[in-house]
Write a structure and sequence with these properties.
- The structure holds two protein chains of two kinds.
- Chain A is 75% helix and 1% strand.
- Chain A has helices at 3-33, 36-56, 74-81, 83-116, 119-130, 137-148, 155-162, 176-200, 204-212, 217-228, 230-245, 249-255, 262-271, 276-303; strands spanning 60-61, 67-68.
- In chain A, α4 runs antiparallel to α5 and α8 crosses α12 (249-255).
- The radius of gyration of chain A is 27 Å and the shape is globular.
- Chain A starts with a helix and ends in a 7-residue tail after the last helix.
- Chain B is mainly α.
- Chain B has helices at 7-35, 52-57, 61-94, 100-108, 115-129, 134-159, 163-171, 176-205, 210-213, 221-231, 236-258, 261-266.
- Classes of the chains: A mainly alpha, B mainly alpha.
- Chains A and B meet through α1, α2, α4, α5 and α6 of A and α1, α3, α4, α5 and α6 of B.
């Protein structure tokens, strides 16, 4: 073998992997540094403030509004022990859980139809489900205020009375039901999208096989489709629960005084009462609730390896 | 109709789906119908047809001022989150350093954190810093909330880039910057555009962070609308809402054209 042949062999066989290996190695440091500005920005304006809030929640505010020592857990105790505040906590939990459950039951059929229909139908459903997501929550809350308006001039009451379902106008606005309806409307896409993506990944042959072996449609659904779509369900439930629990606008517009949620209580404590430590403590409880649910969902999805269809 | 659904199961599925479509659209359509109704109060069914409420809204100084502020804020937020987010996404996809996964988790964490609390915590820090310019405070808050969206969309599109093309450009003598500009960027352009548009829309509609950082002098559109809801009962409120709905629809259509909606949202 001549030297030039060897050179050709080296160039064609050996050279590319070596070059790539080296370039990746040299790339490592500068490429990583590109994340530094974002990291610094979020550390200073997101992570550090969040810790600051946690810190304020165990401190005391004096009569001049200055927050400092002594450290105390009294604000947390107040949230749990004072009935007025404890009720807000329960209302928040109740509304979030019922809204997420409702969203699951109603999103399942929509996601199924979305995934398994002809492309045109899929496209239209996707557009209708997603489009409102980008419309301001204030506008959507207002829309429901118009629909649910108490008295005979509201849309729902007009329809119910015209159809003679009821004789006198019903009062839905400014109740927990109204908040649940509004939250369902606002966060419904967050349930449909993960469900549709999980359903889309299921191998249709599995369902066909079950059907061919004689299973009726409901059994195919319960034994094949439902278990395989669990990751989408867990992701969707977590999203809807977290977003509902942390909402402010919908309970403010649709809940009135009878469905105050944690978000509204925090706003009141900060802007009206100026009680920062108590406001911070409620905020920490809210964050803890949301992070706990997210943690459980991550454990379900990854730790225990809930069977992913991919 | 798909053969997979048949009989009673199909009937239930399609009925619930149709019902949910009505549920989703009803309040928005009602708002739009109310905005052209010729009455002094919003009532159902809407009566007559007039565009006078739009005329009133377009002369409302508060609303126009808020519109201007919201658009400028959203533009600034878009620029800021792209400036921070695109390089960060690049680092997350191409970087081969220790703790990439943890850093990615950290950079995306504002997405699962309740935005209401993000705003409150930021307000406390900005108060301590003595930062009283509401416009600057809003810009910072909005960048915190929108940059994860940019990072997520750009990461997704970067993962689809063919690295062989970059290697080819480098082999042919292009330097790193030129390679990025002429080879990588064109491939991720739609992802970057989608991320930017997303940042714009999230900023424009944001309430939970905005409510803490705005003041009476600088109030973006969602806050002004919320104030009007409580104080005004004529159809100028639905007219304002309709303008916002139409703007959102334009955004949605552009997003759908750019990357496809489901990819943009569920990525």
């Amino acid at each position: 073998m001549t030297t030039s042949d060897e050179a050709v062999a080296v160039l064609t066989v050996e050279a590319p992997p070596v070059a790539r290996e080296r370039s990746r190695w040299r790339f490592a440091l500068p490429v990583g540094l590109l994340a530094a500005p974002m990291l610094a920005f979020l550390t200073y304006f997101f992570f550090y403030p969040a810790l600051g809030l946690l810190f304020s929640s165990i401190q005391t505010q004096d009569s001049r509004g200055i927050i400092g020592r002594p450290f105390t857990l009294a604000h947390y105790a107040r949230l749990v022990n004072v009935e007025l505040y404890a009720r807000v906590l329960w209302t928040t939990l109740r509304i979030s859980i019922i809204t997420s459950a409702l969203a699951t039951v109603l999103a399942y059929p929509v996601a199924l139809v979305m995934v398994k229909s002809r492309p045109m139908v899929t496209r239209i459903i996707t557009l209708i489900v997603i489009a409102p997501l980008i419309v301001s929550v204030v506008v959507r809350g207002y829309g429901w205020q118009l629909v649910l308006q108490n008295g005979p001039k509201g849309m729902l009451n007009w329809i119910l009375m015209t159809l003679h379902v009821v004789d006198a106008p019903i009062s839905v606005l400014y109740t927990e039901t109204a908040v649940m309806i509004g939250s369902l409307h606002v966060f419904f896409p967050m349930m449909v999208l993960p469900l549709a993506s999980a359903l889309g990944k299921i191998d249709p042959n599995l369902e066909d096989a079950a059907r061919m072996l004689g299973a009726p449609w409901w059994k195919v659904f319960l034994r094949v489709t439902l278990p395989l779509s669990m990751p989408g369900f867990v992701a969707g439930f977590t999203l809807v629960f977290s977003l509902t629990a942390g909402s402010f606008v919908i309970p403010a517009i649709l809940g009135g005084a009878s469905a105050v949620m944690l978000g509204n209580l925090i706003e009141q404590q900060i802007f009206v009462v100026y009680d920062w430590p108590f406001g911070a403590a409620i905020a920490v409880v809210l964050v803890g609730l949301v992070l706990a649910v997210n943690g459980v969902s991550m454990w379900l999805l990854e730790g225990r390896r809930l069977r992913r269809p991919d | 109709m798909d053969e997979r659904f048949s009989g009673f199961g199909a009937f239930i599925l399609y009925t619930i789906t149709a019902g949910m479509m009505v549920f989703i659209l009803a309040p928005l359509l009602l708002v739009m119908a109310a905005s052209v109704s010729d009455s002094y109060f919003v009532t159902f069914p809407p009566q007559g047809f007039t565009l006078k409420w739009y005329a009133k809204v377009l002369q409302d100084r508060d609303f126009l001022e808020a519109m201007r502020l919201s658009i400028l804020l959203a533009l600034g937020t878009t620029a800021g989150s792209l400036l921070f987010g695109v390089p960060a996404a690049f680092a997350l996809v191409r970087g081969d350093f220790f703790g990439v996964a943890a850093i990615k988790g950290f950079l995306l964490s504002p997405l699962i954190f309740p935005a209401l609390i993000t705003g409150l915590a930021l307000l406390q820090v900005l108060n301590k810093l003595g930062s009283t310019d509401a416009r600057l405070n809003l810009l910072i808050g909005h960048i915190v909330v929108t940059s994860p969206y940019v990072i997520r969309t750009v990461v997704t599109s970067l993962q689809l880039v063919d690295e062989n093309l970059e290697d080819a450009a480098r082999t042919l003598g292009a330097n790193r910057l030129r390679t990025f500009w002429r080879v990588t960027l064109p491939q991720i352009a739609s992802g970057v555009a989608a991320g930017g548009l997303f940042a714009f829309m999230v900023s424009f509609d944001n309430y939970p962070v905005t409510m803490w950082l705005a003041n009476s002098e600088y109030s973006p559109v969602p806050l002004v609308l919320m104030r009007q809801l409580v104080n005004v009962f004529d159809p100028s409120v639905p007219a304002m809402s309709t303008i916002i709905i139409l703007m959102a629809m334009v955004g949605v259509l552009i997003l759908e054209k750019l990357v496809g909606l489901r990819r943009a949202l569920a990525a």
